[in-house]
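User: Is it possible to get a 3D structure for a protein together with its bound compound? The compound here is 0O2. I've pasted both below.
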Amino acid sequence: MDEIYAKYEYAKKMLETELQILIKEFERKHGYTPVEHTKSRIKTEKSIQCKLTKKGYGFTPENIEKHISDVVGVRIVVSFLSDVYDIVSMITHSTNLLIKKRKDYIKEPKDSGYSSYHLIVLVPIYLESYVEYITAEIQIRTVAMDFWATLDHKIRYKFQDVIPADIQNAMREYAEDIQELDRKMYEMNKIMSKYEKEGY
Ligand code: 0O2
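Assistant: Yes, that's possible. Here is the predicted structure of the complex:
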């Protein structure tokens, strides 16, 4: 286990550095800062164990590597809906990261109402005599989606996934409100850009 955790630590560092550079370059080229904040983490042993149990697998290094794609996770929170897709495109064009899978929970939100764009990527780590590719998850979402997901996470933790129906229904409704708000903010940003172009 020590060996595999060490590799996840290296992958987290590599991914953080790669994303920092990509975001800085994006800002330099476009003269605009789309990212509000980023957060990275290594999933706790308890959480990995829990997820493997739910999927019906034992807690072994092989099962972690094979069945858990988000031991290393980075979340990128952006201002507007269009920024999500700009950041996805930026990461997709990186020559250092390989895209393994995409999950667009913005176009198709989960039943809970959860929405975000997930990229499952392969991150190279340079060991003594060889390069190994480690799987990691990048979640890209707007501030509004992040607000919703943070509360939803607290609810899930409190009720241990057995969430009362009234809370579930309310959260689905708020997810729709958030979607609508993101759309309105995106339109407002377009209007602002138009004014800017006209010299305001
Ligand atoms: P934590 O504690 O946030 O890390 P898969 O093998 O692809 O079928 P997986 O990895 O569960 O299974 O994929 P999925 O559904 O894309 O979810 C990955 C992560 O997305 C979750 O990790 C959450 O971080 C987030 N997520 C997915 N659904 C929800 C949701 O309904 N509400 C919230 N708040 N977050 C969600 P973990 O390990 O479940 O949790």
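The pocket of 0O2 is lined by residues 43, 47, 51, 69-70, 103, 110, 112, 114, 118, 149, 152-153 (CB under 6 Å). The domain at 2-197 is CATH 3.30.460.10 (Beta Polymerase; domain 2).
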